[in-house]
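Section 4.2 – Deliverable D4.2 (structural model, holo form)

The reporting period included a commitment to supply a predicted holo structure for the target in complex with iron/sulfur cluster. Inputs used:
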Amino acid sequence: MGRTLAEKVWDDHVVTRAEGEPDLLFIDLHLLHEVTSPQAFDGLRKAGRPVRRLDLTIATEDHNTPTLDIDKPIADPVSRTQLETLRRNCAEFGVRLHPLGDIEQGVVHVVGPQLGLTQPGMTVVCGDSHTSTHGAFGALAFGIGTSQVEHVLATQTLPLAPFKTMAVTVEGELPEGVTAKDLILAVIARIGTGGGQGYVIEYRGSAIEKLSMEARMTVCNMSIEAGARAGMIAPDETTFAYLKDRPHAPRGEDWDAAVAYWRTLRTDDDAVFDREVVVDAAELAPFVTWGTNPGQGAALSSAVPDPASYSDPSERLAAEKALEYMDLTPGQALRDIRVDTVFVGSCTNGRIEDLRAAASVIEGRDVADGVRMLVVPGSVRVALQAVEEGLDKVFTAAGAEWRHAGCSMCLGMNPDQLAPGERSASTSNRNFEGRQGKGGRTHLVSPQVAAATAVLGHLAAPGDLPGLATDVRTPVEV
Amino acid sequence: MEAFTTHTGRAVPLRRSNVDTDQIIPAHWLKKVTRDGFEDGLFEAWRKDPEFVLNRPERAGASVLIAGPDFGTGSSREHAVWALQNYGFKTVVSSRFADIFRGNSLKNGLLTVVLPQETVEALWELTENDPAVEVTVDLVAREVRAGGLTAGFDLDENARWRLLEGLDDIDLTLRNAADITAYEARRPSFKPSTARI
Ligand code: SF4
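Output (structure tokens):
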């Protein structure tokens, strides 16, 4: 019987296999950041163990880093300690680190791909659930806990029980204005936040094949929001073109050998998935969340649902609690929801194509009165590219704030936070209670919806904007 | 790691589904660089409410958490497990756990027990009606016992053995060091290195 993409990558990494035991898998790339690594390094130190493969390990600072005044000492002493701890650990053990201020610094899941370190057929891990992002390259990439971080540092392997496989097939053309973010939010709403539990999801079908690498990363990034361990997309010409000539991509004969291998990384025609979900791309629309988990979403053109309409009692209760926390009433049009803050950034939508998309909507327009808009590039490289294209000017001219790279408002660990009761439209991936700051209320949206929302002050799509008097530059092809 | 064989204690019924790790331990607690001292951050937002079940005097000293479905979703933070353990929980019962949370728990000796939702409901009722009732989670017999109720649970044999013995995963893996070296020798040369170029 044929094998799925996930099974092929898995099989190629088995170090030992024994009846009744988890497989021991080799890990090709281990990414580190400041939050989930200190206790792991501590463990190594206590046991007197070195890092086994420094050449497969890399660290960056992202969660705690401020996005303003980055040349000044970090104000919050606890954040500072955590960053200093990472710097000390990396120096002591010899791990390559890109600290705040370095040209390669940024959100860990933006940095790996842009350096060309994430490649098809690899196993990639990081003490961070959004490691699923790297699956866009046809890598088996998943988040791990701190004990496992220590395990990989010490052994470059992980004992793992096999995953189940799920195919999410999206056929057809995405309608105009519908993005990868809308697609993945709709998939999560359909299968639920527990629907992917135990599975590696492979996204396939003509609509997926047409996505750019960055859009594919957006899709795979949020696999974890459906409960899946990982998301994957088979590598193709789009993948190879993205990787060619990146700093860590193979060169010369190695490139040819790599591409020959990468071409074998597809699900065989006779392979069987444990579960299959089919989505018609033509039925998708701009999608936003109304609740406090990423599965509580709906088309922007619809209304806040009535909890009474849920037959499952625990879903009904979850919806009731969500509406109370979000201060929304059933039946209220989603377009009528007013926001205080708009956040464009994160490892979901903080790459250059996302910034281009948001800029193309906001160019020549103004952020609505009383709304603050933060634009935070996912990495220093993304920031430099955006500046070269003049996107920073587009944003600041509209009244948005242009910040330094980092996780920023994606989570309340650094100074960029929502105040209690404040409401945001955010291109990040989690709308949990308090995720963006205590008492903050989050609506997950695409970069295009974020930009249109910033202009109108309420949840909106670019199509809701009145035309401009002057001609807007044609959006860059994404 | 401390071995887990059997544990008996009073319970906290947590009637909420989809309790994500941001609720278990909010992000600002993640700045600590140790594995202990997280107990005050456990369910921090909800604990502001004096009526929240964990704050009820009759729940003081409870060590078995009986949670709703999809417990531990979201962020992979192992701090969620440490917070539960620092607070005094030895085991969590739910009808469904998020994968990463479950993996993290078992690695730290916090036993996660999967029971059908009806059984969880029965345990909720039992422990709500009588907060003093003791719940026994017996890993040797693979059984949960409380009041008149007995429910069997599954756990894969390997995870169970490591919990029962309190074995350290890294030591176990390093027994296969020769296999790892052999695997490394046959990795293709086109695989990337993080060495600076
Ligand atoms: S941007 Fe958000 S989701 Fe991504 S790594 Fe940072 S905190 Fe996590």
